[in-house]
Design brief:
The complex is a heterodimer of chains A (about 850) and B (about 60). By secondary structure, chain A is an alpha+beta fold. Chain A contains 21 helices and 30 strands. Helix content of chain A is about 25%, strand content about 25%. Chain A has a seven-stranded mixed sheet with strand order 3-6-1-13-10-11-12. A six-stranded mixed sheet of chain A has the order 4-8-16-15-14-9, with helices on both faces. In chain A, strands 19-20-28-29-30 form a five-stranded mixed sheet, with helices on both faces. In chain A, helix 16 packs parallel to helix 17 and helix 19 packs across helix 20. The longest helix of chain A has 28 residues. With about 60 residues, chain B is mostly helical. Chain B is about 55% helix and about 0% strand. In chain B, helix 1 crosses helix 3. Classes of the chains: A alpha+beta (about 850), B mainly alpha (about 60).
Amino acid sequence: MTQVAEPGAKRWMGGGLVRKEDPKLITGQGRYTDDIALPGMLWLAFARSPVAHANIVSIDTSAAKELPGVVAVYTGEELASEWAAAMPCAWPVSSRTYPGENTHDPRVPDHWPVAKDRVRYMGEIVAVVVADSREHAFDATEAVDVDYDELPVVTDIEAASADGAHVIHEQFGSNELYTWELHNGDVDKVFADAPVVVSERYFHPRLIANAIEPRAIVVQPVPAGGEFTVWSATQIPHFLRVFLTLILGIPETKIRVIAPEVGGGFGSKLEVYAEEFVAVALARKLGQPVKWNEYRSEGYLSTVQGRGVIQDMEVAATEEGKLLGVRVKLQADMGAYASLVGPGIPILGAFHYHGVYDCDAYSFTCTSVFTNQTPTDAYRGAGRPEATYATERIMDALARRVGKDPAEVRAMNFIPPFDQPRMTAGTLEYDSGNYGAALDKAKELVGYDALRQEQQAGDGRRDGKLLGVGISSYMEVCGWAPSQVLGTLHYAGGGWERASVRCNPTGKITVISGTSPHGQGHETTFAQIVADALGVTPDDVEVLHGDTSVATWGLDSYGSRSLSVGGVTIQKAAELVREKARVLAAHELEVAEDDLEWTDGKFQVKGAPDRAKTVPELAFSSWAAHNLPEGVDPILEAGAAFDPPNWTFPSGTHICVVEVDPETGSTRIDRYVAVDDCGTIINPLIVDGQVMGGVAQGIAEALYEEAIYDENGTLLSGNMMTYRIPSAAELPGYTLGKTVTPSSTNPMGVKGIGETGTIASPPAVLNAVADALRFVGVGFIDKPASAEKIWRVVQSAQGQAPPERTPEGGGTGAASMTPEREGGVA
Amino acid sequence: GMIMAGLGLIESGAGMEEEEVRLGLEGNLCRCTGYQNIVKAIQEAAGEMRQAAPAGAQGGSE
């Protein structure tokens, strides 16, 4: 029994229904890609480059082929004929300036699933082994003998675009993919004339998504028909099908892609990978099922990484702290190749570095470069955490500069409340917002005024620790996306959704959704929406997704779109079903349609409520088709499409309270308050779950995580010992609040909540740490605010040079990733 | 993993204050939930299970 609402209640939307997905997941009955085993299945393993940049002089696979259980070993040259095209970049951003005339001249280097003559990042595939077991396949990869002629390695973002840098893709003449600019207003004049200009530089290290389920793929070929069934741990089964067709030359009608249970993605499974193309190619070549499952440390190298950005952020303001202009320059690390949507990630943040604040002048410039490291791509928030971090950190810096409380400076600059689309300085039309309400609520929940008083009275100390309070008043842009806008941004696909709602003859409802959940609870939320529309219960509704032969049309799940685009589409389809049912009901009850009312989940004759029909009853009679009105087809079902007219814009305020130990540098989060506004709330349990999970990732980004490469392009943080995601012991509890400002973008007023926690939290945490450290004279600290980093800046500020590091087996970052348990627990 | 670790904590008689439960879950990673509801669920289950089978008796499992 999944319901927690009152048995007689007719309204499910807005209620905290326990998730329909969970019973099977928590009893181990969920079937993930790795759970699939097929008769005659062969295992794949990949030999990967141990060096970051080299020509492949020769590859000798003879020894590997002799090892037990090995069926075949293939090099990049041997597989070259499998590919109709190189791996895709679906968002080939090119240099341009807005406003202005531009030509689209993208720089997308060929990226083959298996390297042919050169490797450009540590971990790039150089050969693939096929064997009778996973262990036999892996062992044979170590016997593949590759002669590398190493080339100069480029890892530093700024060095990559400096004069004289070694060029990774010679055909472009430099390591730059693009320089993309957006200017609005007379930015130079505003900055030149402004009484106050605050500038800071921020660095966002690369992050490793670490979805708990590793990547995996199983392919079942039917050689006589040229057909393939593909199970993949992917966020994007529909896109994967399209790209398998394009890269492998297999007709789309012959490929079925299924995303089974997928254990988290966070953007790292929003990609079409070399391993997927190779698996299908080898299933085709060998005529047998094949399987691959990633090792965690393998995934650290081969799964797209997030972030990797340097920001030079500036604001111009009055002496009172009123914002006049925002100017930011980004340098973004694409890694060795243009990934599926990697070039577009910085652009997702391009339009809102002014956040929730008004100003007259806005300038965004981003230069993206290739480096000899794993390609980057989307990671929860994708461009928006970077933007929010810069905005919210500089607002605190501005507050310090003008000598005012950071909450006060924010409040004086908020865009005033609005509920219809409003043009902003970055040229986005925000859908609605009430930023002051969330700030006020967050301040109340955290006890803001008392905290500031305590800080003042204690000169920043509480029991020997430094007390800090940090605010993040954020907005973000999601609900991916209006298709026309995507076209202008040179994104290859659209942003619509399609759905079907089908009433089965015995009264249960099937919903076909084009979204592809990987842990978000769509089956529950969508069931609630349909239950309300059709007068049934969520238990009566089954939501199907993630199988291209079942949910034929869809654009999958990323960019916080599943509810605000997918859910809206489902509601539209359900309402079409209800309208069809109304026609049938009127006919069966022998009344005019206007004599019916929809009350209590059924069609009742006005004035004679005992004469009524429910949708399940009408589903049966529609299926039997004994008495259909003229012109009405049998079967009660409807499909709908929705292409959103605008993005959606969740917002809110998070406030973090930290105690920093100046002796050890360790940070303890004392309180974390999140007040979020995702518009209309369909399931508050699920919304809260997304916020808590998102905040956890953001706190981890703020305090613990960074992927570290050395100057040779070796990934030093190559496993969970050196790059560890936090456990419950390293994270605090959260206090959650909500404001509700419905979106003007869709009829439900929903905005999305999947990424907001990760977008909002890093600056809240860093602002708190910086706030604490100012009491010992520290002017600046960036993320991750590890214990070592904090200790060093405190030592420096106190005039003592910290001792020289003696790295043991690692570079400067290795020790900083050891989460401090002492004091790291809330 | 979380369920097994939680069960182990409860049956071992460990303290169920938030900090204690969090430390007890140190060996189990989750990337989705942010842990808060897992901690609460274990605390709630401990309450029910220990009431049904007080300290010293074999902890009953679901």
